[in-house]
Amino acid sequence: MHILIGGYTKHESAGIYQFDFIGSGDQAHLEQRRNVVEVGGPTYFQKDGQFIFTIKNENGQGGIAAFANGKLVSQLLHEGSSPAYIGINKEKKLLYTANYHTGVLAVISYDDQGQLTLLDQVKHENKALGPRPEQAGAHPHYFDETPGGHLVSCDLGQDRVDFYGFDGQKLTHLASYQNEDGFGSRHLAFSPDGKYFYVAGELSSQVNVVKFDEENWMFRSLATYSTIPESWDQHNGAAAIRLSSDGKFLYVSNRGHDSIAVFAVLPDQALKLVQRVSTFGEFPRDFNWDAEEKYVVAANQNSNNATLYQRQSDGTLTPLEKDIAVPEGTRVLFTD
């Protein structure tokens, strides 16, 4: 098993790094960091077999690129900023990108040789912006699939979750769910049965639990929970959100409080805080787990380190290794 970590390349980073996962239980640790893809700004990426599909910036251009065995095989670049997120459907060979700066959502296909083709894109207009300074424009930060096979985006600038259909050629807007003003909708996760979703609000440091009917596009907000202590009065931005595959535990990273908030999901979908664990570094934008969800790695962007945890049966995280050196990390992915 390996772990890939990539992020910004503004200082020391050269791109995407790979670590070997060694040992098991409380003896597990990461070894042999090596730069496997040299690329500018791989702040998010996905992997399918030999291919790594990554965000890329180069010479004032941004977009995505496909690499195989460390070599560039295809890219789609445009003038300006690169996207913030890439989703993937490996069966359909589709990629979904959200561009925080330009407001553009795109669907891109790839073939067996890793060649990329833009299929369609839409642009979020600046029509219903939130009240905070960070919401001066539309800022989609997430674009991926729903349980029912539609597409969904989170727009931080407009406090909104948007749903789209895609017929293989064209995107069609289907419905919207509106978060509270200033919430800063960033990422979301769906329950295993597809009847609920959980939205991470970057600007409010909250999680909104929403009952969801995908057939009739009906939404009902159930409750909102803080990811940080009431006493915290410094800057914080909620970032990554992940739900365990059994739907019993929800995790959100806090950039500022520098922690991962762990919630138990009760039968009525109420969230119960069971832990806030330090990431032992600064600005944890992403964290992820292995296929069996036994281990978690969090990347700390500003302190150039990652932390390895063992995940317990009660959902809590036990730190195993704290000072794993990796520069400017913003994306974590476990691979074979």
TrEMBL record:
Its EC number is 5.5.1.5. The keyword Transcription regulation does not apply. InterPro entries: Cycloisomerase_2, Haem_d1_sf, Lactonase_7-beta_prop, WD40/YVTN_repeat-like_dom_sf. One of its GO terms (molecular function) is 6-phosphogluconolactonase activity. Keywords: Isomerase. It comes from the Bacteria. The keyword Isomerase applies. One of its GO terms (cellular component) is cytosol. Pfam families: Lactonase. PANTHER family: 6-PHOSPHOGLUCONOLACTONASE (PTHR30344:SF1), 6-PHOSPHOGLUCONOLACTONASE-RELATED (PTHR30344). Belongs to the cycloisomerase 2 family. This is Putative 3-carboxymuconate cyclase. It comes from Lactobacillus delbrueckii subsp. bulgaricus (strain ATCC 11842 / DSM 20081 / BCRC 10696 / JCM 1002 / NBRC 13953 / NCIMB 11778 / NCTC 12712 / WDCM 00102 / Lb 14). The lineage of its organism: Bacteria, Bacillati, Bacillota, Bacilli, Lactobacillales.
